[in-house]
Amino acid sequence: MASSFSFDVVSEFDQQELVNAIDQTTREITARYDLKDTKTTVELGEDTITINTDSEFTLDAVHTILQTKAAKRNLSLKIFDYGKVESASGNRVRQEIKLRKGISPELGKQISKLIRDEFKKVQASIQGDAVRVSAKSKDELQAVIQRLRQEDYPVALQFTNYR
What we know:
CATH topology of the largest domain: Alpha-Beta Plaits
Radius of gyration: 20 Å
Distance between the termini: 11 Å
Strand order of the largest sheet: 6-7-1-8
Strand content: 25-35%
Number of strands: 8
Order of helices and strands: EHEEHEEHEEHE
Structural class: alpha+beta
CATH superfamily of the largest domain: YajQ-like, domain 2
CATH architecture of the largest domain: 2-Layer Sandwich
CATH class of the largest domain: Alpha Beta
Shape: elongated
Largest sheet: 4 strands, antiparallel
């Protein structure tokens, strides 16, 4: 039997599911009557999504479609960090959506402090963009997971490497 158990708290998403959600969004935009002639584009970059369309009304409709498709593919809506709407050439609007991935050092400290304050027998250490949580019993780790799920963080948390 292992002397201690651990898991990692991470914030990541399935890139392929995001690609599929954007493909479905593009397909729906070309099929919908109210969006068909707007020449709207949704492009996925390395860590951004760029939406280019003809009006803010259309942009809101594209947001709704993208969020619906992402939710159906089990992607958290917290991965989207909406930038400001910019004017583009030819009376068009553009918006960049940054994709949140990884736990920032500040958020890692906040999670680590919460664990240290509320769970005396549990150790938390920040490792890059993840937080490693270890304890002597699995029950304590499950209590930590339940407590972290109750908090509302700006990023979606996943629990991996449970050993």
